[in-house]
């Protein structure tokens, strides 16, 4: 099962809450993986943190995918995501949440046009 709770969509968040996903997964003995894909904006991290804090979905394991394609054109990737690891809410996502960089795709500009 895949549940995409992107873009701070209030309807999806409420639906996830109504579904009681953590309880369902536990009762079905389903192990869960949260894949948090974000850009270098604080709003992206706020969305992830809000989902976690509200308890809509807390996974057995988590991974943070930092998408370099979402960095403003002309800016480098160096340090773009450092603010996340300095934020105390990062530790609340779980012990040892690995961060993975997804490099900017060379063809992304052509795909957007």
Task: Write structural notes for this entry.
With 113 residues, the chain is an alpha/beta fold. The relative contact order is 0.17. The chain has a 3-stranded parallel sheet with strand order 1-2-3, covered by helices on one side. It is globular, with a radius of gyration of 15 Å. The chain has a single domain, classed as Rossmann fold (3-Layer(aba) Sandwich). Helix 3 (42-54) links the parallel strand 1 (33-38) and strand 2. The longest helix is centred in the middle third of the chain and has 13 residues, at 42-54. The mean pLDDT is 80. It has helices at residues 10-19, 21-27, 42-54, 82-86, 89-92, 108-112, and strands at 33-38, 61-67, 99-102.
Q: How would you describe this structure in keywords?
A:
single chain; 113 residues; alpha/beta; Rossmann fold; 3-stranded parallel β-sheet; 6 helices; 3 strands
**Percentage of β-strand residues:** 15-25%
Assembly context of the chains: single chain
What is the strand arrangement across the widest sheet? 1-2-3
Here the CATH topology equals Rossmann fold
Q: Describe the global form.
A: globular
Largest sheet properties: 3 strands, parallel
What's the helix-strand series?
Answer: HHEHEHHEH
SS class = alpha/beta
Question: Total number of helical segments?
Answer: 6
